[in-house]
Structures are given as C-alpha cells and as structure tokens.
Design goal:
Layout lengths: L2 E5 L2 E4 L4 E8 L7 E7 L6 E6 L5 E3 L7 E6 L4 E6 L8 E11 L2 E6 L3 E6 L1
Parallel strand pairs: 2-11
Antiparallel strand pairs: 1-3, 3-8, 4-5, 4-9, 5-6, 7-8, 9-10, 9-11
Length: 119
C-alpha cells in the first residue's frame, strides 16, 4: 500500500531552521508531483510548496525565499528546508503525492509532523 512518512519536525526558536523529510513507498515516486501543506490550530490546511515530477518548484508567498523544496527520486524522498522560521510557521506539516492522467487521479497524504516555532 501507499505510505508517506514525514519526519524532522520539532521545536525551534524564531529565526532557526528545520529540515522536513517525506519518505514515499508504494508509488512510482518519480511520476508524482510532491507537495507540502500545513495546518495551524483553528485554521484550514494551506498549501506551502510544490515540486513537480520534472523538478520545477513553486512556493506560497508566505514562505518564498525562506523555504526550499527538493526531491531525490533515487531515495523516494522529498525534503522541505525551512530557514528563518517565524512563530506563524507553527503548524502540522503534511506531505502530499499527486498524480493525474487519463486513468484518473491519485492523491496520497502522510500523517503529518509538528513544527513549533517559539518567539
């Protein structure tokens, strides 16, 4: 079955850095666009970053210039490097794998990892 397992969350002071990883199994990883989302307490889940199967990236305006998404297709992993963290970055971060073609849409989620940024 498909599994996405996030790791790397934790508690960090404002201005610090964290590196999140998501390990995928059960899918042809290289064919999937990989996203990071986050959900803060009492708020809706919001999109953070994308890396396409071809390696193109895009970011939410709130994290652009501070976060970097990358992927290693040989290791079936996607990474989110988060620098200059702010208290408003506090959230549960989720990894998402997405693929759509003529056969349909496939959309998978990890269980999330908590990131807490103290002021």
């Amino acid at each position: 079955q498909v599994q996405l397992v996030e790791s790397g969350g934790g508690l960090v002071q404002a201005g610090g850095s964290l590196r999140l990883s998501c390990a995928a199994s059960g899918i042809i990883f290289s064919m999937y666009a990989m996203h990071w989302y986050r959900q803060a307490p009492g708020k809706q889940r919001e999109w953070v970053a994308l890396i396409t199967s071809g390696g193109s990236t895009n970011y939410a305006s709130s994290v652009k210039g501070r976060f970097t998404i990358s992927r290693d297709n040989a290791k079936n992993t996607v990474t989110l490097q988060m620098n200059s963290l702010k208290p408003e970055d506090t959230a549960v971060y989720y990894c998402n794998a997405y693929n759509a073609d003529a056969r349909g849409r496939r959309d998978y989620w990890g269980q999330g990892t908590q990131v807490t940024v103290s002021s």
